[in-house]
Automatic annotation (TrEMBL):
Signal peptide: none annotated. This is Carboxymuconolactone decarboxylase. PANTHER family: CARBOXYMUCONOLACTONE DECARBOXYLASE-LIKE DOMAIN-CONTAINING PROTEIN, SI:CH211-175M2.5. Residues 33-99 form the Carboxymuconolactone decarboxylase-like domain. InterPro entries: AhpD-like (IPR029032), AhpD_core (IPR004675), CMD-like (IPR003779). One of its GO terms (molecular function) is peroxiredoxin activity. It comes from the Bacteria.
Length: 155
């Protein structure tokens, strides 16, 4: 392999990829058990991937969000979710928490996001959203580091 070729981490260490994929499935299961619906789960995945700039994960999770019934309008305004009334209080709390975990802002900002989330989410939902953010950030980093390509749609 030449140094100019991309090294796919998932292909280089498939057992590690299987382990993180298994974690991702467990996190999804925990989120659904906690009452985090598939649409919100995918909104969170999209928002985290937007922040991280992961094209591969954005392509995947925008599609999955649509399949889960998410509207094109809400997906379009997701980066500006604070500026619209299109999101419920629970969704806003989950988005704020996921963004805080992704960006790791100063303590005061983290405390604010966590406080909002604790007011609107159950402990189980809070934990599930937190695990989702941690895991999605890991997936983003694997895909960004690996330069996973986005394939053009065959429309």
């Amino acid at each position: 392999m030449s140094v100019t070729e991309h090294l796919y981490l998932d292909k280089q260490h498939p057992d590690l990829w299987k382990a993180i994929s298994s974690l991702g499935l467990k996190v999804q299961e925990a989120a659904e058990t906690a009452g985090i619906g598939r649409s919100l789960l995918e909104l969170l995945n999209v928002r985290i991937s937007q922040i991280n700039g992961c094209a591969y994960c954005l392509d995947l999770h925008v599609r999955r969000a649509g399949e889960a019934g998410e509207s094109p309008q809400r997906l379009a305004v997701l980066p500006a979710w604070r500026e619209t009334a299109l999101f419920t209080e629970k969704e806003r709390a989950a988005l704020a928490l996921a963004e805080s975990i992704t960006e790791l802002p100063a303590q005061q900002a983290r405390d604010h996001a966590e406080g909002l989330a604790r007011e609107c989410l159950t402990a189980e939902e809070f934990s599930a959203v937190s695990w989702l953010a941690v895991t999605m950030n890991a997936f983003n980093r694997v895909s960004i580091t690996s330069h996973h390509p986005v394939r053009r749609d065959r429309a």
